[in-house]
Amino acid sequence: MADIDPRVILDTPMGPNDAGAATIRDYLTRLLAELWKDGEGFSGKRPFGNSSWEGELLSALARAGHITGTLDEDGYLDDADEETGYALIAAAIRALGAPTEDTAAAAEVARLRAGEADDPSPADTMPTPAQWIRRWNDATAERRLEVITRIFGELDRARRCFEMDHENRLAEAERVARRLAVAPTRWAYDQACKALWRHRQRADVAEAANARVRAIVQALVDDVRANTDEPGELINAQLLLDAVATALLPADGLTTPPQPATPDLTDGEVKFLADLIGGTGDFVWGGLAVQHGMDLRDVEQLYRKLAGHTDPSAEAAPREGCVDHMPTPNPDCEACTR
What we know:
Blueprint: H1 6-10, H2 24-38, H3 53-64, E1 69-71, E2 77-80, H4 82-95, H5 101-113, H6 129-138, H7 141-163, H8 166-227, H9 231-248, H10 267-278, H11 287-291, H12 296-307, H13 312-315, H14 334-337
Antiparallel strand pairs: 1-2
């Protein structure tokens, strides 16, 4: 019986007593109050009336079955295990100073509430530290366990990311992805520029040759008209002009030399090429194409159209390097040798 929890002893009903206490806790509290009040004058035997405080406490313990004892016919203690009873009373007195569960819980809540914010923000926003304390204090036990589990999970994930160098791996993957995205578009863009430039050069050469021939023939015509009066001489002059035309002009006569076949381009592609040749627009890779609503497939399709109308001799010219090795090709680079 000596192993009984002191809190159980304190909550034991007193029964009839001179102090009018309901439980042993109340009785001991009043007894200690009398001791504090009287000090050295405390009689120590019968502070509340005719009965001694030891007898009243032992009677309560015996009635509750905490110690062995007998009561007389009037309900007063006749005999009891005083040694065990005094040990239980001493333990109960020491337990008076310990906080109860309710008191301890209230103290803990008070300490936690001390750092709370008065007006917590909505649940879907990032809280301040004080608001976080408020949410934590108001959360259920299940919610707290969920938050703790998530926090430890994130910490474990961060540890594994650090060990496996995920940050640098992601950076390398992004760099490779950017190179793969830029290279085909830039290559098609460069090829389109070269093809357009070759067509423009051929047209300029043809126009210049046509202009020279027209000037020579016109000079001959003017000379014949100025110096020929007889019909026979006009005929001879006409023959001479025909001979000159045959020698200087193409077989199809005084016409513009044949231009390269024009590819079947859409209005959007024509506008894109006009800006490209004119040097307008944003020349950040793909920027000009984006301005015209073109994507990678559109640029590749335009290149295929132009590539079908290029000069084979010009196509056989040495290639420049790819976007990463311009202007000198790298023999080990697949993009340069493609």
